[in-house]
Amino acid sequence: MEEENKLVEERREKLKALRAKGIAFPNDFRRGSLAGPLQKSHGEKTKEDLEKEKIQATVAGRMVLKRVMGKASFATLQDGSGRIQAYITQDVPGYDEFKHWDLGDIVGVSGTLFKTRTGELTIHAVSLRLLVKALRPLPEKFHGMADQELKYRRRYVDLIVSASTREVFEKRVSIVEALRAAMRADGYLEVETPMMQPIPGGAVARPFRTYHHALDMELYLRIAPELYLKRLVVGGMERVFEINRNFRNEGISTRHNPEFTMMEWYCAYEDCEYMIAHTEKLVRAAALAALGKAVFAYQGRTIDAQKPFARVSIADAIRAQGVDGDLRDRSCLASRLGALGVEIEDAQGWGALQLMLFEAVAEKHLVQPTFLTGFSAEVSPLARKNDKDPELVDRFELFIDGKEIANGFSELNDPEDQAERFREQAARKEAGDQEAMYYDADYIRALEYGLPPTAGGGLGVDRLAMLLTDSASIRDVILFPHMRPEAAS
Are 369 and 432 part of one and the same domain? Predict the structure, then answer.
């Protein structure tokens, strides 16, 4: 820390000298070319071709490498598209000042393209300017940022020094673009719904609270857009989707961030079976867009998203781990969970306990893409009951590498059934369950106007990005993940 403070002070003195000359932070330099396109267009040309063509280029970027060799020097500039080298000789105005510039400074260079003896595309500078004096030094060039937590806190530095980090977020953009394109191709309309809601609904989760002073009312950051999107289906917008930010006041882990991105979509006159097939198609499209293939490595395992995804019920997934007994009998489930040291509550029925047992013994084993089915009505307050077995609902969750990636179901469109389930949820909330749903009278009113038979789905964009970028933590695919406050230094 002392060494860094010394370097910062030295740089501040240099900036002070620039201010005295009236040339600090100029804003009249205009870049004409980017490093990446220059490399793509001219990187394969021969030295002789470049000498004949005399291609002029004006670039700007952060100086990440520098070699001063007396009468001539080399500098490597990095912009948003890549890197390019500059060759600067002593006859270039400002060369003496350049020798004292620091790595991390932002520099503008104009000149002619040529190839060095080693074949590297380079700009032979005829002019150069210091555009921004960087006051803090970059991490040591050979190691980048070794402190993982510091990478999350100072993502701006991580992006400067780590090409692999930049690649992760470029792939994430490709994933989102692929999802959006697939939805539009299937006739879905992209919409926006409120992020601040008077009643948080659409998921079982603890919300964040806020307050609107002008309206004198408490609001909640949305935990899901579901109930608003289904209101739109009631209104006749029969295929809608939203790529949205959700907020859930829950713990932080390698899979959870309190602010996260999902895509939710709803389609009238379809059911759970349609949504299963559509979800599989979306995951495959995202993989092809990000990786060019649907079979890929994730944390040392090979994930095959090319072949049809497997299906298994919650009960069968539990039995596959050697658990026997009646998996709809509450006492049996309670006994199994007790043996595992999992605490339960008196208000939880067999459906909730069965799901807890699945999470405890079976979830981690669903490595290859697998649709989990057989959910109880108790844990699915917005899903339609199964016609053959009313204790269950027509619902699925998609698991890959033991992670829930997507969730979907045939939507409950019976307003009286939905009202009763809301009342059950409200009773649980009254009893102290902070994740239980509220009673949403306006949503019930919307259902009373008539929601067509509808299928709905939600896909976790962050978790999908984790898989397709081989990232171990959700923090690796969120540019600015939430962190505890930094300790005072």
Answer: yes
Nearest to 401 by CA among 368, 441, 377, 370: 368
pTM to 2 decimal places: 0.93
Please tell me the number of Cα atoms within 13 Å of 254 on its side-chain side: 8
pLDDT in tens, 305-330: 999 999 999 999 999 999 999 999 99
Based on the fold, state whether residues 59 and 199 are members of the same structural domain: no
CB atoms within 10 A of CB 449: 10
Residues 422 and 305 in one domain: yes
Query: Domains in the chain: how many in total?
Result: 2
Which amino acid, 355? L
16 assigned to some structural domain: yes
Same-domain pairing of 289 and 209 = yes
Distance CA 470, CA 476 (A): 10
Long-range contacts from 289-295, C-beta under 8 angstroms, 24+ separation: 289/174, 289/175, 289/177, 289/178, 290/171, 290/174, 290/175, 290/178, 290/468, 290/469, 291/171, 291/468
- My answer on whether 300 and 399 are in the same domain is yes
Cα–Cα dist 149/130, whole Å: 32
Mean of pLDDT values over 347-353: 93
What is the span of the domain harbouring residue 373? Answer: 160-321+362-477
Q: Which whole-number Å values give the CA distances from 116 to 47, 121, 229, in the listed order?
A: 8, 7, 59
Residues 101-144 pLDDT 10s: 999 999 999 999 999 999 999 999 999 999 999 999 998 754 55
How many Å apart are CA 192 and CA 242, to the nearest integer? Answer: 6
